[in-house]
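Forwarding the complex inputs:
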Amino acid sequence: MAEVAERKIRVLIAKPGLDGHDRGAKVIARAFRDAGMEVIYTGLRQTPEMIVSAAIQEDVDAIGLSCLSGAHMHLFPRVMELLKERGVDDIIVFGGGTIPEEDIVKLKAAGIAAIFTPGATTGETIEFVKKNVKAKS
Amino acid sequence: MSEKKDLKRIEQEKERWEAETLKPTLKKNPERAERFTSVSMTPIERLYTAADLPGWDFMEDLGFPGEYPYTRGLHPTMYRGKLWTMRMFAGFGTALETNRRFKYLLEQGQMGLSTAFDLPTLMGYDSDHPFSAGEVGKCGVAIDSLADMEILFDGIPLGEVTTSMTITSPASVLWAMYVTVCEKQGVPYHCIGGTIQNDILKEYIAQKEYIYPIEPSVRLVTDTVLFGAHHLPRWNTISISGYHIREAGSTALQELAFTLGDGMVYVEEAIRAGLDVDAFAPRLSFFFDCHNDLFEEVAKFRAARRLWARLMREKFGAKDPRSWLLRTHAQTAGCSLTAQQPHNNIARVAIQALAGVLGGTQSLHTNAMDEAMALPTEEAAIIALRTQQIIAHESGVTNTVDPLAGSYYVEKLTNQMEEGAWEYFKRLADFGGMIRAIERGFPQREIADAAYAYQQAIEREEKIIVGVNRFTTDEEPPIPLLYINREAEAQQIDRLQQLRRSRDKDAMMRSLDALRQAAAGKDPWGKDLLMPRILDAVRAYATLGEIMGVFREVWGEYTEPNII
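Prediction (whole assembly, two chains):
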């Protein structure tokens, strides 16, 4: 075969921290896969360090963080810090969970590209990833 | 109940009605959809009649309240005699802050306590463990040792209130702490009432707060069942929970079937440990979700009671009628709440709470409207409690027992629930039982499939969620939310480290050594019982992380199969 067609978007779906609520992460992972992306799901109880290593190793375009325990203000910015420390600036990071508006503003300031709260559709999340990954390449 | 020839006539008349009355109407005004389904995606018919209940027997399938098979409720008078227990789940920050919320809720007319713990506590880590960073006090109260538990229940008479503790992997340890606080208050064992969730199987299936491999975890649960049966006759040692299964995305039927499937494992294990079924079964309790689909939910509760009574009497040979009773707590569906237009959640919660009440629950927690975003503010929690009080005192639904009985629709749904559950029991048996099925990922996959199917139905707008995919607004004013005191983590770690310095270290180490030996021992139901040793360790102020660490060391940790 000659040149392979367009490279598929690769996304790491990650569950940072101790939270075990994985319904959202799994639904998103499956929806992304159905939308033609390559999805790597970390499974539960990942430290920010583990997530960043996996993202680099898997050469992903985007990381989706899911947290419903209230620890997002600690865990999400930590992922951004570690990416920066390792010189990575071309991975889009977005998040989802039970996250109040006031925190969303702060998370965006910390570099998280978008936060999706309960009720958000997989459709809008897919659209967001496609648009932003394309925009960056 | 109806005679065969009556049913035949109804069927014939229905055909006539369809041809003469229905058909012309449909031609002129087609229905809003081709297919109507419940929130669980179960097809729902246009009309139900007696012909949908062939072979339905009043005494066998319905009976009278307070009598086998308890379809109509556990008590002869139900809410005419005593209302359900309004039990609001609360916990955040430090023990001191939660103690204040408890006292406030009791002053507002709440009838029992229900404790939410933070994730480090739920996962058996101390607040100063690296994995606890950022999680301390966030989704519940942080408890590291008996010292925190003493503060949590300070000034609350534990001989008078009952306390539910939503804790599972470390349930035995938190229970031991609670019992020790009762000892210190001078409350005798036979007066201590309450519940520990302690249903470990649903963690592997749905909520994922497991720690150890399945078999030693089930041993720990069985150990508490034994301790309760011998020493604490008023304590519910397991709250067999469908709630988390449902919240993970299951259908109502899956919630029912997997929950009772888990329940059967605990019964079998306690019998294997040498207990007579009637010595512990009356202390098993349940916990179900109440979702938006009112009639489906009512049917689920009714079918659950009937099924459990049948299982306990027929399958396990229980003779004491108290062993046949499916006593249940219920909670409105957190997963149904939306961050969009949050005030709408008040209406959702009211419908769901009504479902629990019409279903005959023994106790109820109503979620607050702000819980799609954070733990509830005091104001939001009070609206949720008031919702229950309005149902109890204003709606009139408490005036009669099981008001929906005899509705063709509700009875049909109840039958379908029961039949569907028996089919699931058979599939579980084909795997070699629930534990083997979990190892193979069967219930997990069923739930993930249902969750995905439901989400797709929302996105196709087959399911309408008000404020989300219909009747949306662009700008929404924010509502006030609860923010957890950021100093809680530092305060908690400070207190924990102080405790570590001040306790009698040798006595504490000896208690942990004894526990380690018992955990590794080969005589689980004899000399290697765990609860007495856990109590000793708690009294010596060993921390939760230290006690759970002993088991981690001996039993190892569980890794789940990766299922998307």
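Chain A touches chain B through 36 residues (CB under 8 Å).
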